[in-house]
Amino acid sequence: MRIEDLKIKIEDELKGIAEISVREPNVIDVKVSRDKIVEVAEKLKRMGFDHVKSVTAVDYPGERFEVVYVASSYEASLSYFLVSLRTSLPYDDPRMSSLLSVWPSVLYQEHEEHDLMGIEFEGNPRMGERLLLPESYEGIPPLRKEFKVRVEGIDA
């Protein structure tokens, strides 16, 4: 299968609910609103994208967060391709539905983004638990750009 053929197939499946583009030779970028992300993830899974390789978040200070899921497939015809599923969250309301019901592989990755970026993944049972930070940690999540590193009395 060619990337152009897969793009057309995804566009047909997600018509009217997502923006689709080819970002790299083997990556299809799917941008969707947070209220449609579960629906889109379910459709991508039915198309053969059966697992998520990574979940990450980007902090655009004071503006928004962008959460990115990189989905792939173990099917031979799709295994060369990646789908970058992304959504934006308002900076003052960084929450969205978890994709755990679609892809179980997101369990700990969403948990990491919650712990380090402060994004709430509704439906993920790990929210409220610490994974990488001590249970006593309070304050700005350490991967947010507004977090200040303190070293021997120097603010960096």
TrEMBL record:
GO terms of molecular function: NADH dehydrogenase (ubiquinone) activity
One Pfam family this sequence matches: Complex1_30kDa
Gene3D superfamilies: NADH:ubiquinone oxidoreductase, 30kDa subunit
Domain (NADH:ubiquinone oxidoreductase 30kDa subunit): residue spans on this chain: 30-150
Range of residues in the leader sequence: none
Entry similarity comment: Belongs to the complex I 30 kDa subunit family.
Protein name: NADH-quinone oxidoreductase subunit C
